[in-house]
Specification:
The complex is a heterodimer. Chain A is mainly alpha-helical. Chain A contains 11 helices and 2 strands; from the N terminus they run ααααββααααααα. The radius of gyration of chain A is 19 Å and the shape is globular. Chain B is of the alpha/beta class. In chain B, 47% of the residues lie in helices and 19% in strands. The chains are: A mainly alpha, B alpha/beta. Chain A: This is Branched-chain amino acid ABC transporter permease. Chain A: One of its GO terms (biological process) is amino acid transport. Chain A: Belongs to the binding-protein-dependent transport system permease family. LivHM subfamily.
């Protein structure tokens, strides 16, 4: 029973990390820097959902789409007004990283001032998030739906990425954005689109987290750390590597809690990061 | 930079310098006219509601003291510092209060970790410090200048352990916050419960910033315990009790004083039904609740705020009794004080450790999002 329950929880944690790492990966592979502002889109998604669904009492589905649009827009605008300038000026990756970090910090401070620094719970009543019995194990409705929706999204994005024209364009930009530009691919436009898609994916993560256990302004950074570790772990150049990395981290974290106790859970990503950097710095899946 | 821009920047700089100088001189002018008391508490972060609530209670106390003639014929001024509930931040905050603001005494901190981080600095500088909410047992040994008007967790954990044993719950799992407060409760509860003949089936902890206790709770579910002693602050407690409900854990959930926060129970609603916790019985009157409501615009009184309100009045009384702003004299006055009629407890006296001599606990139970006192 316990084993099955832990497997279900690992599955949930794994898909949530996968969702975040897909969006993060699109941005990372194209602009080639760790865009920590991605965590800001996670927060914006969650808090906008809180605003629309719980404060303004808009019904569930429209509220989700509105929030996803705004979180996408958030990252899109961050690119348009900050990062594209820096990239055009040939700022090095370190400058971009610091800029994105500053952007995340500013975002979480502003959200903290508006919504308070305590956990914000999106559900109107926590008892609405009822639990389901799954072959003897338990998941609540948010976790179960998240697993289904994210699996679908992974398939859709894998299809787009590997099978469509747009996917080929993305891969070309990822491969070498300068050469891609030479053959007539509008680099800036593709970057903008990827930032929007990435922002919406991060926003969905924030919504799921906020519905399930609530988000705090610090969650942005708290989630960025494992996402960065996963990207390095799976191989930052690979789509599937990120997803494999997500599940490895989820398994490692949950098993650590079961065998060694909860106080070690936050340390696991970093132990894994150090081991990977020592043993296989290029990640599990090379391109 | 062209000429106009230079002129604009120049003007801005001059204005700022004049503004800065004038505000500084104003500050030094008021120095001798007020008695400064420092405040430390979490004004940001997960536990911000504790600090902000206490701040409101202290503002009420300051008004009352000043309207009644102040201290040593001067007005009391409280300097508020944020400690973010962490020892490192509290150490900075206490240094700032002592060295920059030159406070006579300090009211704080709320979180045990913060108090323990600040205590060595206050002790070295010989500034009396009175905590209004830190319940970790080790605060007793923090130093001669460190006082608190809220009782040690040693009594709280003891009370909880004996209550559970009295109800025939002999197998208990521990789930405690991984910080000074949680560790203190864990140790005190384990000692008291095993001494009373109970069995601690498992002992696990969680990161205070974490809101995912699912793996810990799954392990607990497999153990068939009678009760879970769950010591967490507001956010992990909401998440943990919800996840325990998801998992269908039937054991009695028993918490500590941090659960005396209405946010937990209003968010959980019926999901929190049956959960119980110990909290120091306060003397809090309807009168004080009404004052807090007037101050905050809503019904919100965290139990620490009762002690914060009393704490400021105790410090004021000690300064009056010492009849000077000498920190050593204030400390001596504090250790001999007998303060009555407070909203936290009816009577406060300090023992040699700076702990209150009396501690009266009550147990509260949640039902439908509301708390009721359990009669014993």
């Amino acid at each position: 029973m316990i084993t099955w329950q832990i497997i279900l929880y690992i599955l949930y944690a794994g898909v949530l990390y996968s969702l975040l790492v897909i969006g993060f990966g699109f941005i990372l592979r194209s602009v080639k820097f760790f865009n920590v502002a991605y965590g800001g889109a996670f927060l914006v998604g969650g808090y906008m959902m809180f605003l629309f669904y719980r404060v303004l009492v808009i019904s569930f589905i429209p509220a989700i789409f509105l929030s996803l649009f705004i979180s996408g827009l958030y990252l899109f605008l961050s690119h348009k007004f900050i990062f594209s300038f820096l990239i055009n000026r040939k700022a090095n990756n370190f400058v971009l990283l610091i800029a994105s970090f500053g952007f995340l910090t500013a975002t979480s401070s502003v959200l903290g001032m508006i919504f308070g620094s305590q956990a914000t719970i999106i559900a109107r009543r926590l008892s609405d998030i009822h639990s389901l019995n799954i072959f003897g194990g338990t998941l609540n409705i948010v976790e179960a739906l998240a697993i289904i929706i994210i699996f679908t999204l992974i398939c859709i994005f894998a299809f787009i990425y590997f099978k469509t024209h747009f996917g080929r364009v993305i891969r070309a930009v990822e491969d070498d954005s300068e050469v891609a530009e030479l053959v007539g691919i509008p680099k800036g436009k593709i970057f903008s689109q990827l930032f929007f898609i990435g922002g919406a994916l991060a926003g969905l993560g924030g919504i799921i987290q906020g519905l399930n256990v609530g988000i705090v302004p610090a969650s942005g950074l708290l989630f960025m750390l494992p996402v960065i570790v996963i990207s390095v772990l799976g191989g930052i150049r690979s789509f599937w590597g990120g997803i494999i990395g997500a599940f490895i981290l989820a398994i490692a974290q949950k098993l650590t809690v079961v065998f060694f106790g909860g106080s070690w859970e936050q340390a696991v990503p970093f132990v894994i990061l150090i081991i990977v950097l020592l043993v296989r710095p290029e990640g599990i899946l090379k391109k | 930079m062209n000429k106009t821009a230079k002129i604009v920047v120049g003007i801005v700089v001059v204005v700022l310098v004049i503004f800065g100088l004038s505000s500084m001189s104003k500050k030094s002018g008021t120095d001798s006219e007020t008695v400064k008391i420092g405040f430390m508490g979490p004004l940001s972060g997960d536990t911000a509601n504790i600090g902000q609530n206490a701040q409101a209670a202290i503002a009420i106390a300051v008004d009352e003291i000043n309207n009644a003639g102040g201290v040593l014929g001067k007005n009391v001024e409280v300097i508020y510092e944020d400690d973010g509930c962490s020892g490192a931040t509290a150490a900075n905050a206490v240094s700032k209060l002592i060295n920059t603001d030159k406070v006579v005494a300090i009211l704080g901190a709320a979180c045990s970790g913060a108090t323990l981080g600040a205590a060595p600095i206050a002790e070295a500088a010989k500034v009396p410090m009175l905590s209004y909410c830190s319940t970790n047992p080790t605060v007793s040994q923090a130093g001669d200048y460190i006082f608190r008007n809220v009782p040690s967790d040693f009594f709280q954990a003891n009370y909880a352990a004996n209550y559970l044993m009295g109800k025939g719950m002999k197998n208990v799992a521990l789930l405690t916050s991984k910080d000074d407060w949680g560790d203190g409760l864990k140790k005190a509860f384990t000692d008291a419960f095993t001494k009373a003949g109970g069995v601690i089936v498992s002992s696990d902890s969680f990161d205070p910033a974490s809101k995912d206790l699912k793996a810990q709770l799954t392990t607990i579910k497999g153990m068939n315990v009678d009760a879970v002693y769950f010591a967490g602050y507001t956010d992990p407690s909401i998440a943990g009790l919800k996840q325990a409900h998801d998992l269908g854990i039937k054991a009695q959930f028993f918490g500590a004083d941090a659960w005396d926060d209405t946010k937990i129970w209003s968010e959980l609603g019926t999901l929190g039904d049956g959960a119980m916790f110990t909290v120091v019985g306060t003397n809090s009157s309807a009168d004080f609740k009404a004052k807090m409501k007037a101050k905050l615009g809503k019904d919100d009184l965290i139990y620490c705020s009762n002690y914060a309100y009393d704490g400021l009045k105790i410090l004021a009384a000690a300064i009056n009794k010492a009849d000077s702003v000498s920190k050593t004299a204030v400390k001596d006055a504090l250790s001999k004080i007998k303060y009555t009629g407070g909203v936290g407890s009816a009577e406060v006296m300090f023992d040699n450790n700076g702990d209150p001599t009396t501690a009266a606990y009550i147990i509260k139970r949640a039902l439908g999002g509301k708390l009721t006192e359990v009669s014993q």
